[in-house]
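Notes from the 1:1 (GR / supervisor)

We went over the backlog. Supervisor wanted to see one worked example end to end before approving the batch request, so GR pasted a single chain during the call. The sequence is below; no edits were made to it. Supervisor asked that the structure be written out right there so they could see what the output format looks like.
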Amino acid sequence: MKKLFVFFGRCFYWLWKFMSTGCLLFTNLVFLMIALVILAVYFQPEIEVPDGCALIIAPAGDLVEEPTAINPLSRIFNGIAGVPVPRETLLQDILDAINTAAGDDRIDLIVLSLSEMRQSSLNQLHAIGLAVENFKKTGKNVIAVDDQYNQGQYMLASYANEILLNPMGSVGLRGFGIFRLYMKELIDKLAINFHIFKVGAFKSATEPFLRNDMSGEAKVANRLWLTNLWNFYSKVITDNRNLSADFISTFIDTMPELMDQADGSASRMALDANLVDSIKTRHETEKYLSELVGRSADDTSFKHILFKDYMTTITPSFTGEAQEQNAIGLIVAQGNIVYGDKVPGQISSKTLGKLIRQARRDEKVKALILRIDSGGGSAIASEKIRQELLQLQKSGKPLVISMGSMAASGAYWVSASADRIFASPSTLTGSIGIFGILPTFEKSITKIGIYSDGIATSKMAGSNNPTIALSPEQTKTIQISVEEVYSRFLNLVSEGRKIPRSNVEKLAKGRVWDGKTAKELGLIDELGNLDDAIAAAGKLAGLTEYSTLYISEPASSGQELLKQLGQSTVHLIEQNQFFGMQVKPMWKIIGQHFDFSLFESDPANIYAHCLIPHSAIAF
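Structure output shown during the call:
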C-alpha cells in the first residue's frame, strides 16, 4: 500500500511539474510576443509617399461597410491555429484613398489589382467606380492589372483608362443568376415536420423547406430585379468601354465561336472584343508601369505605395469627434437582424438600439443617417429598432436611410418610417412579407425507436417541445399571429411612405424590387449614395456647415490598445499580393443560403427576412 501511495505521489508530482512548466512557458511566450509587437510598433518607420508614384488599390477579401467585430490580434492567432477568419476591406477606406489621391500631387497613377477582391455588390463597385471617374477628371490615369477578372472585378476594372490582362488570363463574363438549394426530399427522408406559416405569394424564403425547385411566382419576381440588375451592369461596362448596348449579351451567347476564332485563347478573345487593352506578362506589366512612374528607391519594382500604407497617411472620413457643434450622425448596420445581444457580423436589436439612443441624446448630433445592408431577420427585433428610430424623430432629429446592396423585409420594416430613403439602382429592397418556421421531430425520433409521450393541463402546453406534433390550436394561433404581423407591416409602410394601404398590398406579398423600380413605386425617395444621403440629412436639419461622424460602441482602453497593436502587427506581417485566385468552399455556399436560421432567434419564431443574399447571385 505504501508503494502505491509513493507511485501516485510521484505521478502527481510530475504532472504538476509538467503543468506548471507549461504555464510558465506559455506566459513567457505571450509576454515575448507582446514585447516584440510593442517594439515593432515603436520602431516602425514612418510611411512616406514617393513623389510621382502609383497608388496600388488592391482590396483583399470581401468589401464591407462595417468590419466584422474580430480583434486584429485574434485574426492572427486564429490564422496560426488554422481557424478561418474573414478577410475584409472597408468600402469607405477605398473611397477615402481614391478621393484623397485625386488631390495629392505625389500620386500620378492608380493601379487597380483586384484578384484578391472577393464578395462585393453592384452598388459598392459603382460607388468605387464613381470615385475613379472623379480621379480621372484631374488628368491622372487609372490602370487595371490582373491575371484574370471575374464579373465583379471586371465591372470595377472597366472604369480604368487601360485594362491589362495576362496571356493565360480571361474575362469571366457569364451573366447573372439566382440559385438556391432546395431540400424537401431530404426533409421527407429525415421525417422532419417543418411547420411553415407565411403571408405573401412571393415570400419565397420558406420554399427550400417546402419544394425541390423554385416556384413560378418566385421565378417571375426574381426575373424582374435580376434582369434590371443585369441591364445596369451591362450598361456600366458598355458605356465605360464604348461598346454597343447589346454587346455583352451577344459576347456571352457567341462565346464558343469567339473562342474558336481566337484559337482557344481566352485572353486573345477578350482583346479582340475590346474588353481589355493589351496582353502582358507580369514582367512586361512591371516594366510598363516603371516607364510611367519610374523605379522605386531600392530598384526592386516600379515606384508605388500600397493602399494600406497610404491609409496610414490620411484621416479616414466620418471618424473622430465632431469638428463643429453641428454634426450628422452615421450608424452602419450590416447583417441579419437578430433579437437580443450582439452577434459578430449581425445587427443586434439591443446594440443598435443603444447606438440610436446615443445619437438621440447627443446634443451635437442634429440628424441621423442609418446606412443599412440587410436582408432582414427577426420581426420583433426589427420593430424594436424602428421604435428607437421613431423616438429619435420625435426628438426633432431627421432620419435618413441609406440602403446598401440590400435593405429588404425586416430591413425595410426598419426603414419605412424614415424622413428620406436613398438607395442605389442595384439595391434590392421591399420583400414586404412575413413567415414563421417551427420544425418538429416527432416522426424522426420514431424512426429510430424513440417516442415522446406525456400529459398536459391544456392543448397549448408543450408548444416548445420539438419532439411532439403541433396541435391544430397551436398551428392556428401561429398563423393568426403571422397574419397580424403582416397587417402591421402593411400599415407601417402605408403610414411611413404615405401610400394608400390598398396600393401597398399590391406591391407587397413578399416581392423583391430593385432600387430603380422601388423608386417608381414610391418605396424609396431617391437614387443616390451615402454622400447624397448625408447632404439630404444636413438640408433636413437646416444646416449649412456640419461634420459627419460614425456613432459606434466605445471601446475600453484595453481593447483600443489591443486593436492598435493588432493593426500594427497585421500591417507589418501581411503580404500584399498582386495576383491570385481562390475557389469558394462548398460550406460557404451552403452557409450563404441558410445562415439566417443559425443566428436568428425571434421569441415568436416570426421573421421578416428576404432569403436572397446578394452573394447568392452568380457574380
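Supervisor's comment: The mean pLDDT is 83.
Batch request approved.
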